[in-house]
Design goal:
The complex is a heterodimer. By secondary structure, chain A is mostly helical. Chain A has eight helices and no strands. Chain A folds into two domains: 77 residues, Orthogonal Bundle (Rna Polymerase Sigma Factor, Chain: A); 66 residues, Winged helix-like DNA-binding domain superfamily/Winged helix DNA-binding domain (Arc Repressor Mutant, subunit A), CATH 1.10.10. Classes of the chains: A mainly alpha, B alpha+beta.
């Protein structure tokens, strides 16, 4: 293993977990997240020489993942995953029996992209509002508004009325969607 | 901070360290008697969001990603790399010469103090290193140590390992999780003799130890586990401990 491979191996070992989470919450699909991560690391490998400051590696890789997600989205128009396709939610379980974590997960999945992406970059990526603003090409004030609304919408979706007994997954999904739209 | 600003800030970034002070001030002034409770509730909610965003990584993902680096590179890229390496080597030599000149004029004690300060500063660049809990594969550990002219056996459990440049000096940055929290050790290989030092630096406890051909700088919030970590390192590293006198 040469020095370049060693440096790449360190990037894989250190950041693959959080980058996979980021990719997953951008596209909400495990297989696509894996593809995005594969492409992103391939780009990182090709342009590894551009990474001169090791302390910037994390932010550099996150930018590559986000751009790769956008590229995939533009190329294939495939980000149309419904809540029912989320492998993390047990469809057979009535909503009121979902665990707290699963309910929050479902609520996050239903957020519009413009709210979900800043939230994911903040919570998983550890980016500040100004860093998210740079990353998304928005003003810092706009990012702050989106983060505030993202949390409000999640809370609204988790209100007790969302947990009324209902065994129909389709109805449950629609109710979540309607509520997310109104929020 | 006004009550409405506090409420907005809770929704934007509840983990903002300033909010605890703001909440206390709002309760004391009577402007918002619920501020501290609201902050606790927001932090609890944030924990739920963090847990919800956790996703298990697929099996064999590491192997798939590492396989990328086995692909052959284009010839032009190697030329670019060689050119960049030559520039880097020249710059490194210049930097080393400047540093060497500075070292001649510095005292031994000042050298260790500066080393401790440089290491403490470096930690702020890689804060995520402290939260690593998975063990770095022994093969990778051995390779990186060997590249720095050091031998190490596979008994040491290292949770983070990264070759870093600390103020012009190459160091192996390692983190080991211990009962009282993570202990960072920066390992330098240098012909300069390094003496012992114990001090507090930038809210961290620091210990410096020398060996034949380099030095170790230990950093942690508490020095409680320093003895244990140091003993493990001396047992694992194939180096001779040196104690300078006078």
């Amino acid at each position: 293993m040469d020095a370049r491979q060693l440096a790449f191996s360190t990037l894989v070992q250190n950041f693959q977990g959080e980058l996979y989470r980021l990719a997953y919450w951008l596209c909400k699909n495990q297989a696509q997240a894996q593809d995005i991560l594969q492409e992103a690391y391939l780009r990182a490998w090709k342009s590894l020489d551009n990474l001169r400051d090791q302390s910037a590696a994390r932010a550099w890789l996150m930018t590559i993942v986000r751009r790769e997600y956008l590229r995939t989205f533009e190329r294939k128009k495939l980000i149309t995953i419904e809540l029912d396709e989320l492998p993390l939610i047990d469809d057979a379980m009535p909503l009121d029996e979902l665990s707290d974590v699963e309910r929050v997960r479902a609520a996050i999945a239903l957020l519009e992209t413009k709210y979900r992406v800043p939230l994911v970059l903040q919570v998983i990526g550890g980016l500040s509002c100004s860093e998210i603003a740079d990353e998304l090409g928005l003003s810092e004030a706009a990012v702050m508004t989106q983060l505030f609304r993202a949390r409000q919408k999640i809370k609204l979706l988790l209100e007790p009325s969302s947990a009324a007994p209902d065994s129909s997954n389709i109805i449950r999904t629609e109710r979540f969607k309607n509520k997310a739209g109104k929020a | 901070m006004k009550p409405f600003q506090f409420t907005e800030a809770l929704g934007v970034d509840p983990k903002n360290a300033e909010l605890a002070l703001a909440a206390r001030a709002l309760v004391r002034s009577g402007e918002n008697s619920d501020a501290e409770r609201a902050l606790s509730s927001a932090l609890l909610f944030e924990q739920q969001i963090e847990r919800a965003l956790e996703v298990r990584t697929p099996d064999l993902l590491t192997e798939q990603l590492l396989a990328i680096s086995q692909q052959p590179r284009a010839h032009g890229s190697w030329r670019t790399l060689r050119r960049k390496m030559a520039i880097f080597a020249a710059a490194s030599l210049t930097a080393c010469a400047v540093l060497a000149g500075a070292w001649v004029w510095s005292t031994q004690a000042a050298f260790e103090s500066r080393l401790a300060a440089d290491c403490a500063k470096h930690l702020s660049y890689e804060p995520f290193a402290l939260s690593r809990t998975t063990r770095v594969p022994s093969a990778l550990v051995s390779q990186l140590f060997a590249r720095n002219g050091l031998e190490i056996d596979d008994s040491l459990v290292i949770n983070y390992l990264q070759p870093c440049v600390v103020n012009g000096k190459i160091a192996l940055h390692i983190v080991m999780q211990q009962p009282s929290g993570p202990v960072t050790v920066m390992i330098f290989t240098t012909s300069k003799s390094i003496g012992d030092l114990e001090r507090s630096q930038s809210e961290a406890e620091v210990r410096v130890r020398g060996f034949d051909g380099g030095g170790l700088v230990f950093l942690a919030e508490s020095s409680r586990d320093f003895d244990a970590v140091e003993a493990k390192l001396w047992a694992s590293l194939g180096v001779q401990r040196i104690q300078l006198t006078g």
